[in-house]
Amino acid sequence: MFPIAIIDLGSNTIVLEVYNQKKETIYHESVPAHLIQYVDSNRLMSQKGLSIAYDTIAYFKEYLHNHQIQHVHIVITEPARIQNQSALLSELMSFSYPIYPLKGEEEAYYDSLAIEANHPDLKEWFAFDIGGGSTELIHQTGQKKELYSIPLGCVRLANEPYSLEQLASILRKTTNLNPNLLFHKATVLGIGGTIRAIGQVLQPHIISPLLKATDIQSFYQHLLTNHFETRRLIQQYVPESRQPLILPGLKMILSLIHHFQISEIQVSQEGIRQGFLHSLLKQ
C-alpha cells in the first residue's frame, strides 16, 4: 500500500505529499496555482483555471510515475464547491486517480482527524483552518464534533476586502446559528499556510510555536504601517507567492481572536492531508 501520495487541490495551492509506512512525509511539493482567481462571481471556474488544475496534476504525475508510486489520491477542497464542478472532475478523471471532492464540513472533519491523531491527550479543543477560499471551524469535546465552513479565505479576502467589523458580523451570525462552536478555555489550534507563515515570522526556527494574541495584533498593526523590520522578516521567512495573503489572512485571524476571545494559538503542522491519510488507513 505504501508509499501513499495525496494531492491536495486547494483554492490557493496544489500540494503533493508522499508518505511512508511510518506516516512520515518523504516528499512534499507545493504549486501556487491560485485557482480561486479563476472563479467568477457566479462560482464558475474559467477554462484557464481548469487547465491549470489539469497541468499541475500532470506535472505531479511525472514524479509519481518516475518513482513508481501507485497509490495516489486527489482531495479537492474549496474548488470542489464551484458551480461547474463536473467540468473540473472531467478534467481530472483522465489520470485514473480516485478523486474526493469535499464539502466544507468534510474538510473540517479531516482536519479534526489530524488533530485527534497528533494531540490524543486533548479533551477539548477549538481549531480553525484558513485556506484560500474558505475557513473551517472545529470545536471538539470528547468525541463530539461541531464542524462549520465559512466561504471566506485569505485569497478571497484579498480580492474582496472585508473590514474587521464585517468579518465580526459574519462570525456572530455563524455562532448564533451554531452555538456549539463556542468554547471556554479550550486549547486553540491554527491550521493552514497563513498561520504557519505568521508563526515563522514571529517565532523563527520553532516548528509549532505558541503565539500570543497580543503579538498577532501588534504584527497586524506593524503591517498596516509598513514597518520596515516586519516587512524584512516576511520577505525572509514567507514564500513570495504567499506574502500578499498575509494581511487578509491576519484580518480573519484577528476576527476569530476577538469573537472567540482567544488569548493564544498553537500553530499546527497537521491538516487535511494528514487527516485524510488517517482515514484511508482505517478503511
Automatic annotation (TrEMBL):
SUPFAM superfamilies: Actin-like ATPase domain (SSF53067). It comes from the Bacteria. InterPro entries: ATPase_NBD (IPR043129), GppA/Ppx_hydrolase (IPR050273), Ppx_GppA_N (IPR003695). Residues 16-282 form the Ppx/GppA phosphatase N-terminal domain. Signal peptide: none annotated. Pfam families: Ppx-GppA. GO terms for biological process: regulation of transcription by RNA polymerase II. Belongs to the GppA/Ppx family. This is Ppx/GppA phosphatase family protein.
